[in-house]
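Sanity check

After download, print the first record. It should look like this:
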Amino acid sequence: MIKKSFLLLSCYVFTLFTGLKAEEGMWLPMLISQNIKEMQQMGLKLSAEDLYSVNNTSLKDGIVWFGGGCTGVIVSEEGLLLTNHHCGYGSIQSHSSVENDYLMDGFWAMSREEELPNPNLSVSFLRRMDDVSSRVLTGIGASMTEAQRDEVIDANIKAIEKEASENGKYEASVKPLYYGAEYYLYVYEVFKDVRLVGAPPSAIGKFGGDTDNWMWPRHTGDFSVFRIYSNKNNEPADFSSENVPYKPKYHFPVSIKPLKENDFTFVYGFPGRTNQYLTSYAVELITSIENPIAISLRAKRLEIIDNAMKKDVAVRIQYSAKHASIANGWKKWIGENRGLAQMGAVDVKRNLENNFQKWAKGNSELDSRFGNLMHE
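Expected structure tokens:
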């Protein structure tokens, strides 16, 4: 059974799979040279420089952060982009009407002129990333309060982001890893003229609906197609009829060859977040209080919206994306609680914490620093 990897919010990472075993963890592309030999032993035929490079073209130049919450892949030299159907769902809905129900019937542009603009949609290319931990933590003292520490860190982050943005040419963001033990700078080139090219009907793109969501195996044709446009200098620009298809630094060839058992594969992109290192107390709070409340509230919201959507086609179209978003969290939390209970997660955490406490007790210095950590 394939294990799920836990990844960090807005980090550019990939996950490895080979055969029936998945390597758990986080692999930041800028640090991939630390893992490359193992990956090559598993079947990878590329170098670390092929995967991530600041100065040369690499695979990272064909991957985009789509809409601030999804991953997309560039598949043509004219900016054609593939992403999930559910990632493009809001854009598809925004162009749908009772007369042209693209959610229900699908949409395909037969020419560039028929491609549909999306004013609130952007895609971001990661141009570089850097470990800025030492800069972010400059000026931090052991005697500082948490508020004082946060104030210094926030000021340092703002200065780093301002410098890296190069007067608005890029968007820069500093993100913490390991709960603030490390900080990384991500520098993006952001394109805001992104047009809908095609999407299958929901009977394909949303096959299985909420029943199949978060389940395995899936049988959904979960894809949609967009195109990135730039100005005539191949630079980001607001929507304009004068814009032209973006020419990416790299695009992925599409293979129709089937995967074979034990083929090396990896997932490269922008995943969700991890709460892997929460304490047993936090896990118990989530499973006993937070998730049940959230599940109950969303169930009531879904019931109200469902009833309205069934009565009116225009309302169904208007609320489709909202309904999908609410249902996504609702289904996730149900499965999360079920899975954590089946795995005995709280007891597993408590056992780890007890072992940690015993380890700390064995050293007076560690005991003074960490002896009461779990109880505090």
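If your output differs, re-run the checksum step. Summary of this record's structure: The chain has a mean pLDDT of 91.
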